[in-house]
Specification:
This protein is mainly α and 435 residues long. It is built from 14 helices and eleven strands. A three-stranded antiparallel β-sheet has the order 7-8-9, with no helix packed on it. Strand 10 and strand 11 form a beta hairpin.
Length: 435
Amino acid sequence: MTLTLPLRLLIATALAALTSLPTTAQTSEHSFIDKNMAFAARQYHRLAAVPPEGRAVMPHSLDAKRNLVRVPVRAWTAGFFPGTLWLLADYNDDKALLDSARAYTRLMKPMQHYTGNHDIGFMMMCSYGNAVRLAPQPGDTAVLATAARTLTRRFDEKVGAIKSWDSFRSWHGVSTYTYPVIIDNMMNLELLFFAAQVSGNDTLRHIAVSHADKTLRWQVRPDGSCFHVVYYNPENGAFIKGETAQGYADNSTWSRGQAWGIYGFTMVYRETGERRFLDAAMKMADFYANHPALPADKVPYWDFDAYRPGFVPGRRSHARDVVTNYRDASAAACTASALLELSTYAQGERAERYFETARAILHTLASPAYRAAEGGNGGFILRHSVGSIPHGNEIDVPLSYADYYFVEALCRYGLLLNKRPLFVGRNVKQASKAR
């Protein structure tokens, strides 16, 4: 059943009594958040101070020699750096970071017209989306509306989903498919929902819901795990097959893909009130939290099955010979942020469990095992993330999106400790510390 409450009222009233922490413990947790956000701000001052030499590029990671890696603004990760700057500037009342956030966000403006892939949602919502929420300027909303219309060019009504890549050759080299859709694409739907709300264009909302439904039907497995990639027949929209690009095997569960699914379906439920999307988010969250291969500290291996005793990969595993015991802090950070929101929609013990799992993840990521030493890690906050182990890219390095979701989760945690809505405008710190 579709809820009829206005969207923002729905969000504002969706909070539950999530924690039984005593007042003294809550004070300690607020101190935990404050210290980590202050540390993160100091780290990002270092990153923002590194001149980009006049190029439209964003800090992204470190290479094998620990040199800073920047990516062009057309890269799918480009929006995360300005997004993290927005969150840190707002929480810490930091004018210098605020100015940097605006400057780096302006670099993203031409990407409102980018048609190269589906990731314009990541790119624009993390940058301009946070700008609109926290410190809007004239024209910011129009940029997002244009970006949403650009994204719709990748939607085909016959298929009912947004095409992720223009084409993709299977990693095992058997065939090439022309309509691949990856689980990551769930994250880009928020751009469409936002633009539909501010423009009144219901077509944008229809496209977002259609894509979510298609993903739910074919990409989410019965046990709550998901395929990384699904291929459809562009002539009639029929499902062809599911496999992986960055995971261990076609029948395994790539950890960051699972995080994208939890976060994405939670967001779609927020925007629609449709119960099937909440059920999908909870099913995927339960798979993550209850998986026998999830370490005690709640930070997963890069693939849930890559370090699982007894797991037999399908006949085509493109990762048989890779070292498998790498953790992925980026998957954990994204999941923590998603679980905090999901805890406001779930009920009873389930809500408490999601909240406590997210809390445990945050404390793990903030520990010396994952958080960088002051002044180290090239200025990034977290260590031990992976990009794509099968492709030999970004293995056990800091990544901009790991930092983004860690900081976002800290902001959300502070708000929920005080039973405050997650989706507030400026100032997040004031709202999260209103004891």
